[in-house]
Design a protein that fits this description.
The chain is α/β, with parallel strands linked by helices. 43% of the residues lie in helices and 17% in strands. The protein has a single domain (3-237), classed as TIM Barrel. The protein is built from ten helices and eight strands. The radius of gyration is 17 Å and the shape is globular.
């Protein structure tokens, strides 16, 4: 499976073996083992200790396996995760091109140290702040390892301040801008066009399908989700 064929990206806590097993059976094209959003600080040492086995388990059903980390935890998370079977790294709340360069350097060092294929591990920046979106073009072209870019709707809404309706007028603009940036750089834009009152990544399968179809219509090529029952909808919409 090539990276461009990844329609569904299922994000799960790296610390939850039951979620890993469910993800392996979900039919997701990619499973993202999260070490940032859904793992408490106290649980992170154990999650890192087990992430290598989680990579193997999550990929047992044929999915490509990624880990999700953030700039402040790069060294610890990558040392725990860069092993055979890891397809890439999702960088949560990416803010600058320099963060991508730093991530690339750490990946190269670990690939050399562990006799892995150079450039074999990709990067997917998640743009979840005003600063990250402002730097989107520079972030997307900061490394040849960047495969795709995505928005983080919830964090972005919080950063930009929501309208009274719970929506922000800038969101549709930012989604379309991301598609343009990705096209200019030659990477894959990931996203879906959610509508209130949906919580996006927690939407029903039916609403996920509708949001993904709207996303595909403006140029997205796949999307992330948090529930196994959303996977089929993304696979159908982005087929």
């Amino acid at each position: 499976m090539t990276q461009r064929s990844i329609r569904s990206w299922l994000i799960i806590p790296a610390s939850n073996p039951a979620s890993v097993d469910e993800a392996a059976r979900s039919g997701a094209d990619a499973v993202v083992l999260d070490l940032v959003e859904f793992v408490t600080d106290g649980a992170k040492p154990e999650a890192r200790a087990n992430v290598r086995s989680a990579i193997a388990a999550a990929g047992a059903g044929g999915a490509q396996v990624y880990v999700q980390t953030e700039a402040s935890a790069l060294a610890a998370d990558l040392h725990a995760s860069v092993f055979p079977g890891l397809a890439g790294v999702v960088l949560s709340r990416a803010q600058s091109a320099q963060e991508i360069v730093d991530l690339e350097c750490l990946l190269a060092d670990l690939e050399d140290e562990r006799d892995l294929s150079r450039q074999g591990i990709g990067i997917v920046p998640a743009l979840e702040t005003a600063q990250g979106n402002h730097a989107a073009y520079d972030i997307a072209r900061a490394s040849g390892r960047v495969q795709a870019v995505t928005l983080g709707r919830v964090d972005l809404v919080m950063d930009l301040r929501p309208e009274p309706s719970g929506e922000i007028h800038l969101l549709s603009y930012l989604m379309q801008r991301l598609v343009i940036v990705a096209g200019a750089v030659g990477v894959t834009p990931l996203g879906a066009w959610w509508r209130a009152p949906d919580r996006g990544l927690l939407a029903t399968p039916e609403n996920t399908l509708a949001a993904a179809r709207r996303g595909r219509a403006i140029g997205f090529k796949g999307a992330m989700c948090l529930r196994a029952n959303q996977v089929d909808a993304l696979n159908q919409a982005y087929a």
